[in-house]
C-alpha cells in the first residue's frame, strides 16, 4: 500500500512537471524546462522510495512498472479534465482497459 501511495504522489508531481506548463503558453520553453526539472526532482524523491519499497516487499520490476503506468493514466485523466478542461472520451477508457488487462497479466499467478 505504501508503494501505491508514493507512486500516486510521484505521478501527481510528474504530471505537473510534464504537462502543467501547457496552461502557461506565454512561458518560454527554457523556463518550462527548468520549472519542470524542479518539479521532477520532487517527483523523483517519491518514485525511488516507492519502487525500492515495492521491490523489497516482493513486487517484480515489471509489476512496479505496470502499476506505475495504471496510476499515471488515472492521474493524467483527472489532470486532463480538471486542469486542461479536456473531456474523457472512449480513447481514455480503452487505454485504461488495456492497462488493466496488462496489470492482470503481470500479477496473474503471483502470491
Characterization of the model:
The two termini are 16 Å apart. Helices cover 77% and strands 0% of the residues. By secondary structure, it is an all-alpha fold. The longest helix has 28 residues, at 29-56. The chain has four helices and no strands. Helix 3 (61-82) runs antiparallel to helix 4 (90-107).
Q: Which structural class do the helices and strands define?
A: mainly alpha
Name the overall outline: flat
| Distance linking N and C termini | 16 Å
Q: How large a portion of the residues is in β-strands, by DSSP E? A: under 5%
Task: Return Rg in Å.
Answer: 15 Å
Which stretches are low in confidence, meaning pLDDT under 50 for 5 or more residues running? none
Report mean pLDDT, rounded to a whole number.
91
The tally of beta strands, per DSSP, is 0
Secondary-structure element order, N to C? HHHH
Give helix % range: over 70%
Largest sheet: none
Total helical segments = 4
Amino acid at each position: 500500500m505504501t508503494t501505491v501511495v508514493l507512486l500516486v504522489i510521484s505521478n501527481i508531481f510528474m504530471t505537473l512537471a510534464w504537462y502543467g506548463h501547457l496552461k502557461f503558453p506565454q512561458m518560454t520553453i527554457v523556463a518550462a524546462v527548468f520549472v519542470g526539472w524542479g518539479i521532477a526532482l520532487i517527483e523523483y524523491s517519491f518514485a525511488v522510495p516507492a519502487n525500492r519499497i515495492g521491490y523489497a516487499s516482493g513486487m517484480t520490476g515489471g509489476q512496479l512498472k505496470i502499476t506505475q503506468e495504471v496510476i499515471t493514466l488515472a492521474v493524467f485523466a483527472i489532470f486532463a479534465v480538471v486542469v486542461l478542461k479536456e473531456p474523457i472520451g472512449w480513447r481514455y477508457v480503452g487505454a485504461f482497459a488495456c492497462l488493466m488487462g496488462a496489470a492482470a497479466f503481470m500479477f496473474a499467478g503471483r502470491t
